[in-house]
Amino acid sequence: MIFSRHPLEHMLLLSAVIFCCGVYTILTRKNAVSILMGVELVLNAANINFVAFSQYTRIGGMHGNVFTIFVILLAAAEAAVALAIIIGIYQNFGKVDVDQADNMKE
Amino acid sequence: MGTSELVLNAVFYVLAIAAVAGAVAVATSKNIVRSAFALLAVLFSAAALYAVMKADFIAAAQVLIYVGGILVLIIFAVMLTHRITDVKLSNDSTPGPAAFCACLCLLFSLVVVILFTAKWQRDPENVVVRSEGNEITLRQYQADGSTGLARGGIAVEDAVVLEVLVPRPATHLDLVKVRAWSTTKDKDGKENVKEVTGQAAYDQTGMRIRLENLPEGDWRWEVQQVTGGTSEASAKPIPTSSPSDKPDFSVSRGITEPVAKALAGDYLFAFEAVSVLLLAALVGAAFLARKEVRE
Amino acid sequence: MTPLALASGSWGVTITGNAVFDAFLCIFAVCFLLINFIAVYAGVSTLMERKIAAHMQARVGPYRVGPHGALQWAADALKLMIKEDVIAKETDHFLFRLSPYVVFAGSFACWVALPYMPGWSPANFNIGILYLLAVSSAVVIGILMAGWSSGSKWALFGAMRSAAQIVSYEVPIGITLLGMLLIYGTLDMQEISKAQEYGLPFGIFDHYKDGTPVQGGLWSWGLNRYGPFTLIAFLIYYIGALAETNRTPFDIPEAESELVAGYHTEYSGMRFSFFFLAEYANMFVVSAIATTFFLGGWLPPFPSPHAAVCSVLGGVAAAALAYGAKKRGFDATLGFIIGSGLGVLYSAVTGPHGDIHQYGFLAPPGSIGQMIEGVFWFSAKCFALIFVMIWLRWTLPRYRVDQLMDLCWKKLTPLAFINLVAIGVFETRHEWMKLIANHLHGGAP
Question: Which run of H or of E encompasses B43?
């Protein structure tokens, strides 16, 4: 079970590990920017998956690669808006702790 | 295992370890700036892995957009949301057994699906052709031989493996020859025909021909049946069943051109929609992050 | 020449028996050569900067070390190497030590993809320019790392300003290069250099009667392809390049009177010299990209000696006429340019075109002479652009940071977009001229 004989499985396993690290980051962190970093890990894991399927299976066409490009673009847009919101929260509350940003709770 | 395979494996394992170490550091580091720079390691490793998978355009796009844009934004956000004079920024987390067990179960289920349950479409399609009572199976593979190549698929490199399988000793076949030719047009519109011929002696399991250093373009191939000796004159092409408008496979140096054709073809609407979305995100982010004048 | 290609023995070089060792030996040899060149070039560049500044300010500059101060750079390098390495206590030690290397790695990784000579780069990619733009992002991250880990707010402010400036000016740079890519149709740096061998401005005269394409020398470079638009693209790119490398008039992050020294305030000795090395290496990289896209890369300015002679004679004649008529230097220069262009056109129409050597070099194709000529022309053009950068530094005052951002977003980016559209219109001129002709002739296809 070496990489060059089974490239697809190795890439998928790697992306599964990175995905789980990303989910762990989202679940346990308190800082909003850290949670965003976890989201980026999850998106990168998905991207590795897409490209691996596109390059290592006999599905004709470039669909996986094109989808990866769209994911990268959308991650950029999402990160920009999310960080703008986080900076807004910092200006209003003085800290970006997601556990303490609960003004709208009863 | 050949030396280039060894290098490829070593490169993959180094990059995989770097990516996983970076991801674990993002998840568990107590210093948020260290976390951000570990994310840098993950993003660069991912780009290098795309290059290993021969998706060169995506590797460059990943570094350009993720590292040059998103990571810079994240680091700016880290610096703007803390008191500037702290060097050791604490990054609290609430690690509990619940989150850890949940992630472990997720990882376990993914590993089981990847390794044991799913059947990935890797084997080549078989094209069965009958000729003079012999059943010949044709297949095409990507260069490393581990993954089949679809009819009309794109080989992102310059080597393709063609396989011709004859299941049992045939009375009319001593040598089977394969001829591949390219029908792409030059810049001036002239047809550019290149012929590559592979020939191998028949053995019990069939014949594999490796076509290397193929120039770019659309390729077709056919099997020529040589009877009773090496004489060229007795070669008769055995018709394959590929439709005449689609090539058998295409060779391209890097995925830039195929991806561009897809973006301007099948995915044109999505491309335009994403540009509108990016514009909206740009305007929205600039509006949200402005400094309000408070009364 | 990827390591995998080398390891599979396709370069044909055997030093040790093992293909993998050979591959890595070749890679190390090429990188060793490049790093040595960067080190010497950066050192001599600091000396040239001081000398040029001095002569522009009517003084002599460094004079004592070596003949006319020619070894001043070696003395400076030695001094930096033996200085005490001071690291403040409030710094993040690991990142503080790492950041000079990240910044230098970002610059050095660009050097391996530049087209130094016809047909060979240390690592030629078919996504050449995209790779260069991508890897330059490592410099931004290194700068932020350096500013943050220094533990001082001046360093942090300098780093954030520098990062914001570099990231902002990547936008007009990217758009102008995109416009030029519409002309060349490929991302490969070697192909882009080759594509500037043929074709006169606006495509006025593309092929001789026997089908061989016209070599225009200077006049088929990227700068001259589509009239004022490619020239404007070159100027926008050059201004953006000045901002990318934090050179005056955009050096607010390193301004001594403002922020002490910006993001490298806390660095001393060898670590500081790494930042210095990286800045000069970056200057060479942006000049090299400008050379490849706009100035013809490794191509010589004249396709043949006949063209050179015609061009010079025509230019001198036109300059003399213009000076005689108007008695002003500016008109003489303009006359020289127009005259030399007419000379090249005359040579292209009537001169020898059957037996010009490949790319217009004097040496036959595939020989060492061609390689040397290629490297000579490439370096000459890069160093000319670097000289202009140094000239601008000692001539222009500094921009304030809001003026800098205003220039980028409100002036250069819209201009770059307009340029892109104009070049696109020129590139598709055959199609829309056909459309207009069809429409005028009644619409029948």
Answer: helix B32-52
Q: Which chain A residue has the Cα nearest residue B139? A: A58
- The nearest alpha carbon in chain B to A12 belongs to B114
With touching defined as 3+ CB pairs under 8 A, do chains A and C touch? no
Would the pLDDT of C9 be above 80? no
| Alpha-carbon distances, residue C434 vs B104, C204, C227, C357, C431 (angstroms) | 64, 17, 22, 36, 5
Cα–Cα nearest to C275, from C147, C165, C181 = C147
> For residues C267 and C100, is the Cβ–Cβ distance under 8 A?
yes
Predicted ipTM?
A: 0.93
Cross-chain CB nearest to B49 (options A38, A40, A48) = A48
Query: Domain spans of chain C?
Result: 1-82, 87-296+403-445
Is A100 within 8 Å of chain B by CB?
no
**C-alpha span between A17 and B22 (Å, rounded):** 11
Report the residue from A4, A31, A68 with minimal CB separation from B91. A31
Taking the Cβ of residue B237 and every Cβ of chain C, the question of whether any pair is shorter than 8 Å is answered with: no
Half-sphere exposure in the Cβ direction for C417 (13 Å, CA): 7
Distances (CA, A) of C256 to B147, C253, C281: 59, 9, 21
The amino acid present at C24, given as its one-letter code, is F
What's the confidence (pLDDT) of residue C89? 82
The token pair at B25 is 């550091």
Establish if B73 touches chain C: CB-CB under 8 angstroms.
Answer: no
Cβ neighbours, 10 Å, residue B191: 9
> For the segment B26-46, what is each residue's pLDDT rounded down to a tens digit?
999 988 889 999 999 999 999
Model confidence, pTM: 0.89
Each residue's pLDDT tens digit, C399-413: 888 899 999 999 999
Mean pLDDT throughout B11-20?
96
Handedness of CA C326, C328, C330, C335 (dihedral sign): positive
What is the tens place of the pLDDT at every residue in C57-86? 999 888 888 888 888 888 988 888 888 888
Write out the two tokens for B89: 């920024």
* Cα(A91)–Cα(A98) distance, integer angstroms: 14
